[in-house]
Amino acid sequence: MDKLDAMTLCVAVVQDGGFSSAARRRGVSAPVVTRAMSGLVEVLAKHAPPAVPVQALQHQGLRASRKVRAFIDLAVERLRR
């Protein structure tokens, strides 16, 4: 089964609310759906983004919050004029 078929089965599982009902609708056995889903999980695991250290997120968050605060301060100052 190719990736497109596996993705189609994945959509069917979501739409039908389960592996068995998706298998019946697509005319395949439940184990075929299970294997297709497992294959997609493996593909997605290989392409997962690398973990970002918490310190980097904290630094970016602080920088972003400072920018937002500066914008709010500027907007309040201009509105008061």
Textual characterization of the structure:
The protein has 81 residues and is mainly α. The chain has 2 domains: 1-48; 50-81. The chain contains 4 helices and no strands. The chain has helices spanning 3-16, 19-26, 30-46, 54-80. Helix 1 packs across helix 2 (19-26), helix 1 packs across helix 3 and helix 2 packs across helix 3 (30-46). The longest helix has 27 residues, at 54-80. The chain is elongated. The protein starts with a helix and ends with a helix. The relative contact order is 0.10.
Features:
81 residues, mainly alpha, 2 domains, 4 helices
Number of individual domains:
2
Structural class: mainly alpha
Number of strands: 0
Count of runs of 4 or more consecutive helical residues: 4
What is the CA-based Rg, rounded?
A: 24 Å
Shape: elongated
Q: Give, in order, the helices and strands.
A: HHHH
Mean pLDDT: 85
Q: Estimate the helix proportion, in percent.
A: over 70%
Low-confidence stretches: none
Q: What about the largest sheet?
A: none
- The termini sit apart by 67 Å
Strand coverage percent: under 5%
Summarize the structure.
By secondary structure, the chain is mostly helical. Helix content is 81%, strand content 0%. The protein contains four helices and no strands.
